[in-house]
Design goal:
This protein is of the alpha+beta class and about 180 residues long. The protein is about 20% helix and about 50% strand. It is built from 2 helices and 9 strands.
């Protein structure tokens, strides 16, 4: 979820169905990439959390995810999840594996931490924070990842930022669409 989450995806303000992307930023600090998304949804926090923790079906949120599965259930609120995503920028594609410990925190927000020894990232953490606004739910997502694979020095960082940006926009739009389809 992180990279795919990481995947994500972004620059500027874009519409996501009936919801909206307030802002998206992708920055690079040394070897790490930080993605921040601020979005509003016409769905409840519970519905958004339900979709984001439907681990076997994460490809509905982002079709770059080719496979997602629960490896361990440590408690009803703590799972170890493996995802395999194929990310392409221009003509370059890479399959990325992530194994993450994902927790629903006591306040209902989500936290994911990469298990580096089983992932294509040497570091990764992501957090989804939700809160109710007057007629919408606000979600702030922040992910910080460090690829464990070689990144070509000149064009590589640009390609990664672009892929993260594009995947983020796609994920937010799909999350809004899915939330509306079956949201009460």
């Amino acid at each position: 979820m992180i990279a795919r989450l990481a995947l994500l995806w972004l620059l500027g303000v874009a519409q996501a169905g009936a919801g909206e992307v307030v802002s998206v930023t992708v920055e690079r600090f040394d070897q790490r990439y930080v993605v921040e998304i601020d979005a509003r949804f016409n769905a409840t926090t519970e519905r958004l959390r339900e979709l984001l923790t439907d681990f076997p079906h994460l490809s509905r949120i982002n079709d770059s995810i080719q496979r997602s599965e629960i490896l361990e259930i440590n408690s009803p609120q703590h799972h170890c999840v493996r995802t395999e995503a194929k990310v392409c920028v221009a003509m370059l594609c890479k399959t990325i594996v992530q194994v993450q410990d994902v927790s629903v925190l006591p306040d209902g927000n989500l936290l994911a931490t990469i298990r580096a020894t089983r992932s294509d990232f040497s570091y990764g953490v992501a957090r989804w924070d939700f809160w109710k606004e007057v007629s919408t739910t606000r979600m702030r997502f922040r992910s910080e990842i460090e690829p464990a694979f070689w990144v070509p020095p000149l064009i590589g960082p640009w390609l990664i930022r672009r892929a993260l940006h594009d995947e983020a926009l796609k994920s937010v739009a799909n999350l809004e669409r899915l939330a509306e389809v079956v949201s009460p």
